[in-house]
């Protein structure tokens, strides 16, 4: 079964999907929020459901000390709403510190323009989060924040 990774932003949500062997994460796109949180999360859950994942990994931006910032608390709350829409699927939180910066650096190093980065860096961030989760699972380590 596949795993979906998401990077929940205020305006955009990056989406990535694993292969069926759960070894590789691939960025698949960016979901644009329209401004109604509940409707947006329902539409996002519907999009996630199309991939038929067993697990959904949500990036959690912990502070440098490992605590929950205001943004992290919002993401915890939103992940609970998403979980209610995705009945029968596991939703897990996973530490995403620096994933957006890693995605931007990767895209710059591979020649992407600033304009391209605005539209796709969230999907790359989601793939970095998901790949780290997949690697931790393969190594048998739970990671800093494994369950949501």
TrEMBL record:
UniProt GO MF annotations: hydrolase activity, acting on ester bonds; nuclease activity
SMART domains referenced in this protein's UniProt entry, alphabetically: YqgFc
Coiled-coil residue spans: none
SUPFAM superfamilies xref list: Ribonuclease H-like
Enzyme Commission no: 3.1.-.-
Superkingdom classification of source: Bacteria
Domain YqgF/RNase H-like span(s) in chain numbering: 1-103
Biological processes per GO annotation: rRNA 5'-end processing
Keyword Nuclease: yes
Subcellular location: Cytoplasm
GO cellular component, one term: cytosol
Top class in the EC scheme: hydrolase
Keyword vocabulary terms for this entry: Cytoplasm, Hydrolase, Nuclease, Ribosome biogenesis
Family from the record: Belongs to the YqgF HJR family.
HAMAP family cross-referenced by the UniProt entry: Nuclease_YqgF
Purpose of the protein: Could be a nuclease involved in processing of the 5'-end of pre-16S rRNA.
Stated name of the protein: Putative pre-16S rRNA nuclease
Taxonomic path: Bacteria, Bacillati, Actinomycetota, Acidimicrobiia, Acidimicrobiales
């Amino acid at each position: 079964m596949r795993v979906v990774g998401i990077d929940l932003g205020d305006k955009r949500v990056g989406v990535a999907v694993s292969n069926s062997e759960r070894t590789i994460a691939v960025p698949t796109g960016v979901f644009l929020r329209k401004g109604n949180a509940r409707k947006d999360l329902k539409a996002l859950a519907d999009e996630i459901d199309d991939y038929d994942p067993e697990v959904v990994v949500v990036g959690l931006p912990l502070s440098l000390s490992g605590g929950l910032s205001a943004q992290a608390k919002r993401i915890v709350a939103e992940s609970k709403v998403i979980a209610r829409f995705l009945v029968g699927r596991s939703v897990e939180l996973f530490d995403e510190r620096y994933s957006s910066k890693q995605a931007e650096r990767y895209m710059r190093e591979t020649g992407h323009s600033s304009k391209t980065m605005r539209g796709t860096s969230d999907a790359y961030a989601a793939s970095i989060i998901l790949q780290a989760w997949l690697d931790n699972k393969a190594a048998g380590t739970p990671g800093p924040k494994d369950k949501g």
